[in-house]
Amino acid sequence: MFGSNPDSGTHTNSGLPGNIFFPTRFVWPHGGRRVFLSGSFTGWTEHILMSPMEGTPTAFQVICNLTPGYHQYKFNVDGEWRYDEHQPFVSGAYGVVNNVRIPRESDIGSVMFNSDTPGRSNMEVDENTFVRPMASPDGMLRERISEADVQISRHRISLFLSQHTAYELLPESGKVVALDVTLPVKQAFHILYEQGVPAAPLWDFGKGHFVGVLSAIDFILILRELGNHGSNLTEEELETHTILAWKDGKVCHNRQTEGSGRPYARQLINAGPYDSLKDVAMKILQNRVSTVPIINSSSPDGSFPQLLHLASLSGILKCICRHFKHSSSSLPILQQPICSIPLGTWVPKIGESSRPPFAMLRQNATLAAALSLLVQADVSSVPIVDDSDSLLDIYSRSDITSLAKDRAYAQIRLDEMNIHQALQLGQDANSPCGVFNGQRCQMCLSSDPLHKIMERLSNPGVRRLVIVEAGSKRVQGIITLSDVFRFLLG
């Protein structure tokens, strides 16, 4: 069986010293613009750029130093994995076919290299040659992850989260925005935009406790409801609608369920400072919310409950990354490329009818279409792509608050403004295209290891990574914080 781990395709010949390397020439003679080589000798993770052969424009070559034994390899030609049927090859699981090579002295003269000699190539290359621009072909890496590795990693992460509490999420200093339920929706709309937060807990002074959370999805549903009634959204309408009226269903009467059929959550989901991190994470996942207020309700002086923090999966993930930073070997799955584990939502390939459709929109689609898709598909974001499905931008639920800028909501119709125009509202004039608060269009490659994905998603404000093809930026899928935690917690 090949590909079960980085070394499984290599069997050292005990009759030769372990520090011997054979310079071995690899040739791809079948054309292409850009050709890479990868194999068991690179752990299937590094892709070595091959050079055009002088006088033969359709042929590419590279020389690598291989240890004695059995190796498998494959070529990536212009982004497509290929094998050379005119060279020895083997077939394996998932229909994968790889070429094979047993290096010998006769491959390229009688020169041998010791362990001090660079092991990848005797050709001078710069560091950018050895990059990871492409996912490994389907199946080649899937066998490398075992169920035992997954269970060991999940157990250790679960144990860590069970032994640490939400109190550890509290920053040394900071602010938490809360809203009174008697505030007009318009004012709340502006506060969330100005404070740069996607959600805020709601305080009911009459009841003396927190009663819910106002989030971006509320504004999306409000805008869609008013639009469905055929009216333009005006400041006067938002001025008369309080948060309490909206939450009690007195403003809109047709919202028993969201577009996905899931009942709209009205009950406050919260946690205490001494609840375990695992309990907090499970509350976020099970209730499909982005944040959970950490509330200290047992004040010794009998005063009002204290709002301490808004816990998110991002903060919990940062704790995991920090704790296992110097003992990553105890989590075998961290080195696995994301293409080899069941993680995220991927664009279905031709013939894959079992995968659900993947939501994407062109930038000339209307804002009404984008909001409908966010609600009906029950997703938190939609990639914006060109005609080749290359990533241009992303529209997320939280982007709806940008309509508060310069009171744009009073001047637009959802079915007349396109996504590109809507995104422009939220961007500063001096900010680069596709960047908002430094957190727009966060991307990754399908060959990126899980630990890199976790580190990126633990940064404040990053809730998802769009998986793209190297070079073309063609969208291949998306990974959210929720995806990572569902995988880690099983």
Word description of this protein:
The protein is of the alpha+beta class and 490 residues long. It folds into three domains: 22-141, Sandwich (Immunoglobulin-like), CATH 2.60.40.10; 162-317, CBS-domain, CATH 3.10.580.10; 332-483, Roll (CBS-domain). It is 22% helix and 21% strand. The chain contains eleven helices and 22 strands. The strands form six sheets. Strands 2, 3, 6, 7, 8, 9 and 10 form a seven-stranded antiparallel beta sheet that branches.
Under the CATH scheme, the architecture of the largest domain is: Roll
Work out the number of β strands: 22
- Give the helix level as a range of percent: 10-25%
CATH topology annotation of the largest domain: CBS-domain
Average residue pLDDT: 75
Radius of gyration: 27 Å
Derived structural class: alpha+beta
Shape: globular
* CATH class bucket of the largest domain: Alpha Beta
Give me the number of helical elements: 11
Work out the count of structural domains: 3
Q: Separation of termini?
A: 27 Å
CATH superfamily of the largest domain: CBS-domain
What is the beta-strand fraction?
Answer: 15-25%
Question: Which regions are unreliable across 5 or more consecutive residues at pLDDT < 50?
Answer: 1-19, 105-143, 250-265, 429-439
Main sheet characteristics = 7 strands, antiparallel
